[in-house]
Specification:
By secondary structure, the chain is mainly β. The chain is 2% helix and 42% strand. It has an 8-stranded antiparallel beta barrel with strand order 1-2-3-4-5-6-7-8. A hairpin with a 2-residue loop joins strand 11 and strand 12. It is globular, with a radius of gyration of 23 Å. It starts with 9 loop residues before the first helix and ends with a strand.
Length: 364
């Protein structure tokens, strides 16, 4: 893995991570990009509750409580010495706002009672000791005495954005940064990496990441196709299983056939309709799709090819012969818009499926 490293100043990393993003620095405090840990854990967890502030104005709070841990996410703002968390999603409880007092750039005091973290709990940027290490960090290459952080970046070439899409950086101290970019947002995953055969193993995350369906990811792998090319072995968020990561951000000629996204989305449950009869769309890796539609009197299909765009999917119908005689028989283009990592919205009236209907990803 020595070939995974090129000598580049760490300051370049910051430029890559925040390209196109704006910070949220206010007043004399700068908490953007930092993670604060609850200095007290009452539930015997090695990993304490923690709060991450994104430089794009987003936050993720992982709170430990008696039944495990859960996440709260949304947007944050800072005015004078008060941080306000505007909650958009909470796995436990019905929070709308959470307040914290800023003592200094390294210390916050929680002012809202949570399921696990108590009001007046102190959160600090100093990570509590006690976390176990499951992946042994890859040592710094022999002969390197510089204190500069060395890394090499691989970009998700399957997203067709060259070096403007999701990417992963391998640092020479055995750590990694995986940045998922979707629309104007970005999610950062940090942890440790190691190797086993031709696989790169990712684990020991600073904060547990979640996949498109909202399931926690405890580890994932990338296959080393060659020293310039890696292949992701499971879906993360905007990056999917089989996505190709390269140093150039371009797909090698030998792998272009495997570059398209593949996945299945099923219609939101409908009263009186069995799950097996719900409308479903399959996006194939070769750029084709099959939309199976419930026509009430039977099942029909749209077949064709698709394009993945910045806002969703455009499906061009090549064959709708089995839809003849049913509503939607004349549809030539079907549109979907992204809603979140696990959900797309239909933008075309068909038969049972109508404009605005929700389709959820079906995990492998």
């Amino acid at each position: 893995m020595k070939k995974l490293f090129v000598k580049i100043l760490l300051t370049v990393t910051a430029v890559l991570l925040m390209a196109g993003c704006t910070g949220n620095k206010k007043d004399s405090f700068d908490i953007a990009g930092k993670t604060f840990y609850n200095t007290v854990d009452e539930f015997g967890n090695a990993e304490h509750s923690k709060l991450w502030f994104g430089k794009d104005g987003s936050f993720v709070l992982t709170d430990n409580f008696s039944e495990g841990s859960y996440e709260i996410s949304g947007k944050w703002s800072l005015k004078e010495n008060v941080v306000t968390l505007d909650v958009e999603k909470a796995a436990v409880g019905q929070y709308s706002k959470i307040l914290l007092e800023v003592k200094d750039e390294k210390t916050l005091v929680l002012k809202t009672q949570l399921a696990g973290s108590k009001a007046d709990a102190v959160f600090s940027t100093d990570k509590p000791a006690g976390s176990q290490t499951a992946v042994t960090p890859t040592p710094q290459p022999t002969g390197t005495t510089t204190t500069e952080m060395e890394y090499i970046a691989y970009y998700n070439a399957s997203q067709n954005k060259e070096k403007n899409g999701s990417f992963v950086e391998f640092h020479n101290d055995g750590s990694f940064t995986f940045v998922e970019i979707e629309g104007l947002g970005a999610t950062e995953i940090k942890g440790l990496w190691g190797t086993e055969g031709d696989m790169i193993l990712f684990s020991n995350f600073e904060q547990v990441p979640y996949d498109k369906a909202g399931n926690p990811i405890h580890n994932f792998e990338m296959q080393m196709y060659d020293e310039d090319t890696l292949i992701l072995q499971r879906g993360i968020q905007s990056s999917s299983k089989g996505d190709i990561f390269t140093i150039s951000g371009k797909i090698p000629e030998a792998l272009k056939a495997a570059a398209s996204y593949s996945g299945t989305f099923r219609h939101d449950p409908i009263d009186g309709v069995q799950e097996s009869l719900l409308p479903m769309i399959q996006f194939n890796a070769d750029g084709t799709f099959v939309f199976t539609e419930n026509c009430y009197a039977g099942m029909g299909q749209y077949k064709g090819h698709y394009e993945k765009t910045d806002i969703g999917y455009t499906c061009y119908v090549d064959d709708a012969s089995t839809m003849k005689g049913f509503a939607g028989q004349d549809v030539t283009t079907i549109y979907f818009e992204n809603y979140d990592a696990a959900l797309i919205l239909l933008q075309t009236d068909l038969c049972m499926s109508r404009l605005g209907d929700k389709f959820y990803i079906v995990m492998d």
